[in-house]
Amino acid sequence: MSFPLVGNLNVNTAVCAAIKERRLPHALLIEGESGNGKRTLAHYIAKAAVCGGQNPPCDECHGCHLADVGSHPDISVLSPADGKKNITVGQIRILRNEAYVRPHMANKRVFIIDRADTMNEQAQNALLKVLEEPPESVIFILTAQSKSALLDTVISRCTLLSLYPPESSAAAEYIKNTGKYTDEEIRSALAKSRNNIGQALCLLSGGEDSAEQAKARDFLRFMLSGNEFGMLKILSDYEKDRVGADKFFKELKYQTACLIRERRENIGETRALNAFYGELSRLEDSLNTNINLSLLFSAVASKAYETVRNHI
Length: 312
Known about the structure:
The protein is an alpha/beta fold.
């Protein structure tokens, strides 16, 4: 089986070399925005780890077949329970106990912790105990939209793999090979998703823009109309969601840049948007600290209101 992701050459080289030499790290952290292939890569690595063939993942052995249908006894996937937003410390404690049970069939056991950035500090510290002294037969694969929501001590125990959207030509070629969409449809979807293949395919199949895209556009609409309450109402959705806040900030910066291009004939709005974009870059860095999100969002709304008042 060839490497499953488009682009990401550095990750491709590192992962394929580690698999070929059978020296996969005991813990990996795969970060990237939704749609960039985190789960696809995690499954590929897990499948390679339990493969019984000569060139893993071989796609032919019993282990690979079980991995493909999601029933391999040595691959476990942990994510927030149904209806919950976070992975709990209780879930991590159960995983930690399971990690010391020997593999059932393969030489390795793989624990995929999907959306690891939803763990609170207590859950992360519980995981840290097994990351510090992991059993030899276990591989942990954490996926996250951003490592910024994870403790430095957790990050330091993992090999980091950061995923990014591929070049537009490579992304377009990948989608074109599905044979389902026209060149114009593909170009439009990739432009909206910033070459994010997963998000582009969602749009092409009839899916709507992400919640963050819609909220970012609404925020900018409220900003340009001087509606500070509207801006604060949108930001309040993220007061207890640092991961979501990070994703929203990235989307807000992108939508601000798009609006600058769209409104370039309106000098006042362009100046306001440019000033706000500069403030966003500075405020976004605060997410990597322990700043109170309510205070941060108040600052964002205040800066947005102030830039419009000063330039329009």
